[in-house]
Design brief:
Elements (H helix, E strand, L loop, with lengths): L1 H25 L7 E7 L7 E7 L5 E7 L10 E5 L4 E7 L6 E7 L4
Amino acid sequence: MKLVTLVLRAMMLFGAVMSVTTLAKTTKCAHPKEVVKVVKKATCTEDGKVTYTCKKCGKLLKTSKVKKLGHKWSNWKITSKAKNKMVNIRRSCKRCKKVQKQTCTDVGY
């Protein structure tokens, strides 16, 4: 009699463990919190990339493109006088330090 009771209890316990395990596998993550990671920073000339990952289960939720920033130019400055009433001017990007140079007519300001 004790053996039958023991076997029945073991089967009930095993069945309960199996149903909890099955429930855990079938329950979907609601993705309550996201981890935002900058994969590539946007620059003046190139797009950047950001990923969003679930903090709980680690699933990649989405990837977003960050548009390139474009140059942020300084004001034009006269760098030197050229020949025939011409001047050399330049400006630079405040972000990436790229320089643009031109020669133009001196208007005499």
